[in-house]
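[RESIDUES AND BACKBONE]
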Amino acid sequence: MNRRAFVTAALSSTLLTALPLRATGGETPAPFHHDQVVARARELAQQDYRPRQEVPQDWLDLSYDEYKAHRFRTKDAIWSKSDSSYNVDLFLPGLYFRHAVQVNTVQSGMTRPFGFDMSLFDRGEIAPPLSTTGPLGYSGLRLRTQLDQPNKKTEFCVFQGASYFRAIGVGQAYGLSARGLALKTGDPMGEEFPDFIEFWLEAPAPNQRSMVVHALMDSPSVTGAYRFTVTPGATTVMDVEAQLFAREDLDNAGLAPLTSMFLFDRTNRYRFDDFRPNVHDSDGLLIKNGNGEVLWRPLANPTHLQISSFMDENPRGFGLMQRSRHLQDFEDLEANYHRRPSLWVEPRGDWGKGSVTLVEIPADKEIYDNIVAYWRPRDTLPAGAELPLSYRLSWGEDPQMDLARVVDTAAGARIFGDPGRLMTVDFEAHPLLEGDPEEFEVHLSSPHVETSDGVLQRNPATGGLRLAFSFAPNAENHVELRLQLRRGGRSASEVWLYRWTA
């Protein structure tokens, strides 16, 4: 399956009908501890990789509408007949999802597998009869709990497809995804997608706010054991603990990878005949590096694959942000792009030397996830090695950095004077930017071209500051730009980084 076909499936996952798992009744509960998942991953890594069987062909041949026509009865969700604070729905395999995963529940330290039960969902008129034998199971799971609506359990988190998962804060709409691990992203030989092949779900108590999900990962190059502690809210927080085991040398591994979509904004609007002014799940990469410097890199939809590396040691955080928060930014009443979450990664412990890596893939439609960001360690993880990993994921609004943020970047041809490009960068209204614009120092530079001095002025629409400047690309096919506002020698804004391409 190529990358674009797969991420299309991931984008569609929250629209799919769900199927609960029911215990078959014949299994004897067994003691469970996360160390058992770690031991399983370690043992798998010492064996040759064995591809899993695909579900029967008639399941794979379903059309999208036929797939959706199999309707899950939510009243039969996992723990729906108990006083647990969570219900769990499980998704059908088939169509884009070629493999089933094993799902287990854990109650009072004892685990029991659930068996596949076709009788727990209703078939619509167009739903064809399907095979009932073969490697059947479930393709993923969805978490529901009481959020902002009393006595109603609302969905907020989905694990489905390879090692993909995503979540939202209260009132938000699904957007970007995270993954357990990215391998060989942007590699000419193709990307490798590790799979979560088994889940263990710990049953929460009646008033418990967090839920714990364990996952076993397998792939030709690596195995892994994951533990997710998920806490929903205005910002949904996931504490992730993982142990990776390398089957082969891992020289292009992406830790804590994020996957999103960026089609266009005001920097490349001219390429798309579309009624909307912007189309994207995320509009920028935010980094707080090991030195405490805050970097903002607006995203691009390039005409050729481009990879950017931000060298660092022990990063404090990175993430893909959605800063466009008004309906008029998109004018889309269905996609609700203004309600898509930002996703911030906070490493725990010493991640050493490496780089925050941004991969931007050309895309012509919004159905493709064409943006990937992750931490790439500098050193290769050799075959047979183990790597412990711990980090926090926050799904919601931007993290607070105590510096003025960039809220918009626009670009176009310089209409008057010599040929060239005109850029405008808008900074939000912020206490650090109060006062006369002449009090601020503009630090604008490029290793490739000379830029104009620029004009810094108050933007009456936002209350913040806008810098307008120009440059002539000449023979350059790409130009790197860097900008920061300072006052009295101290940082007043984050650092804006931009790559212009011909």
